[in-house]
């Protein structure tokens, strides 16, 4: 498989506001692209090899996101500082019925959930973002699919509850699949993009990804240079043009 992760895309009513929030919270920088798209990029030292991409959409957020970010902390004091900073920047606390936990559940200015984790050894070297967390009915199945199309091997398992992938370099955030029995009802507001390398054949890359277990997604709208597919649990993602 030739594709790799290149973006985490977040739909937004006001991309500028969300990009500013996340850039300030993470200590990254924002770059304005075409059509009001804004990319937030990590410093090379963070080991994050994909962009946070904010794109304008007219639809409001309706349900809890199936994909969210977990932020890393190094000490209890650092965790408290991150929570305070998020609230000062326009975030809020989110009650998902989680009860009393060592991590803190928050939402950004448009209600996208994220967690500020307590210090954990597994995330000591990830940089600002500990993990991209994906809800999954079958974490093993979904992790296996994403391992095949991203080249990120499985590096962690917690029973049948969580399966984690890590970049071969051992740097940057984990991509984790957490058991959750919620039923997907609407198009995901947060999705992943993959792309083949420069010079590769886009159509062949799409064919490979479909053979690995993806399915075409018909979201309507104009023809696009990239292909929109769904993973084995119906999560939308894009196969971008080679880059």
From TrEMBL:
Signal peptide start-end: none
Pfam families, per the entry: Glyoxalase_6 (PF18029)
Record domain Glyoxalase-like: where: 8-117, 132-240
Domain of life: Bacteria
PANTHER family: CONSERVED PROTEIN, HYPOTHETICAL FUSION PROTEIN
Name under which the protein is recorded: VOC family protein
């Amino acid at each position: 498989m030739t594709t790799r992760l290149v973006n985490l895309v977040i739909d937004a009513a006001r991309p500028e506001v969300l990009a500013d929030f996340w850039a300030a919270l993470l200590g990254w920088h924002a770059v304005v692209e075409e059509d009001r798209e804004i990319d937030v990029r990590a410093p090379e030292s963070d080991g994050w090899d994909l962009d946070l991409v904010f794109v304008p959409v007219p639809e409001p957020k309706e349900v809890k996101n199936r994909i969210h970010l977990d932020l890393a902390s190094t000490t209890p004091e650092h965790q408290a500082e991150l929570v305070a900073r998020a609230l000062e920047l326009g975030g809020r606390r989110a009650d998902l019925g989680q009860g009393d936990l060592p991590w803190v559940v928050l939402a950004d200015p448009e209600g996208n959930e994220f967690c500020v984790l307590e210090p954990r050894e597994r995330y000591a070297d990830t940089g600002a973002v500990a993990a991209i967390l994906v809800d999954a009915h079958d974490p093993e199945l979904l992790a296996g699919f994403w391992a095949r199309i991203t080249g990120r091997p499985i590096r962690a398992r917690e029973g049948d509850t969580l399966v984690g992938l890590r970049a071969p370099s051992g740097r940057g955030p984990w991509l984790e699949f957490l058991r959750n029995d919620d039923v997907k009802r609407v198009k995901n507001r947060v999705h992943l993009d993959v792309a083949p390398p420069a010079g590769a054949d886009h159509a062949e890359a799409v064919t490979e990804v479909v053979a690995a277990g993806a399915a075409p997604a018909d979201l309507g709208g104009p023809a696009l240079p990239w292909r929109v597919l769904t993973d084995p649990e119906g999560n939308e993602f894009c196969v971008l043009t080679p880059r």
